[in-house]
Specification:
8 strands; alpha/beta
Length: 227
């Protein structure tokens, strides 16, 4: 059976009050799912939500890993406002690096992204490295790549599974990374079209992970596909 990853990305959303509501609804919605260990579920949340999530996510019926959405490019020290890898590792096992929203809105360069990868690795974090296309560089030591075409993010217009499969196959040929997932307007309705494509190892839903029912439906559809 194909191993798959579903990595939700909350982006800059949810107060602690909203996180509690989400957990309550997600717990209820997933109570009857038949979880299979071939599915890895990760939730990438804002730093402010990770402590609460870490304490409460254990009560779910199946494992949900936690991830941060960014990391300081530096070791601990005089870098006001930054959250470093060791701090993240206390709360999460994963980190997203290189999301196009960070490249575009915060001027993250390839050099900065390489520094972030180095920091994440030395803290023992698993890295989901986002690229907008097959031409983008992928640093060494990345655990998983997410192919996310910019025009598909948050637009409701996903890539076709055929094209995503083609791009992901090319990324796998060009880099040593073995797991590559697709992100960009993934929904409970279209998730199976992506995860059933041979080269695609999972999905990175943003908007659909904010709604506990949509996220749970997305997981349910994937589990059903896995059989
Ligand atoms: P979206 O976001 O699912 O809302 O398009 C995906 C992402 O940017 O990670």
């Amino acid at each position: 059976m194909k191993s798959l990853v579903i990595a939700g990305n909350w982006k800059s959303n949810k107060t602690l009050h909203e996180v509690k509501d989400w957990l309550e609804q997600f717990r209820a919605a997933t109570a009857t799912l038949n979880y299979q260990p071939t599915l890895t579920i990760v939730l990438c949340a804002p730093f402010t939500a990770l402590d609460l999530l870490q304490r409460q996510i254990k009560d779910l019926k199946f494992p949900v890993g936690l991830g941060a959405q960014d990391i300081s490019p530096f070791a601990p020290g005089a870098y006001t406002g930054e959250v470093n890898g060791l701090q993240i590792k206390e709360l999460a096992d994963w980190v997203i690096i290189g999301h196009s929203e960070r490249r575009q809105n915060f001027g993250e360069t390839e050099e900065m992204l390489r520094q972030k990868v180095t920091q994440a690795k030395s803290a023992g974090l698993k890295i989901i490295y986002c690229v907008p296309d097959q031409a983008s560089a992928v640093p060494e030591n990345v655990d998983m790549v997410a192919y996310e075409p910019i025009w598909a993010i948050g637009t409701g217009k996903s890539d076709t599974p055929e094209n995503a499969n083609q791009v992901i196959s090319t990324i796998k040929q060009k880099t040593p990374v073995r797991r590559v997932i697709y992100g960009g307007s993934v929904t409970p309705e279209n998730v199976v079209s992506f995860v059933s494509a041979p080269a695609i190892d999972g999905v990175l839903p943003g908007g659909a992970s904010l709604d506990p029912l949509k996220f749970s439906n997305l997981i349910a559809s994937t589990l059903k596909f896995q059989g």
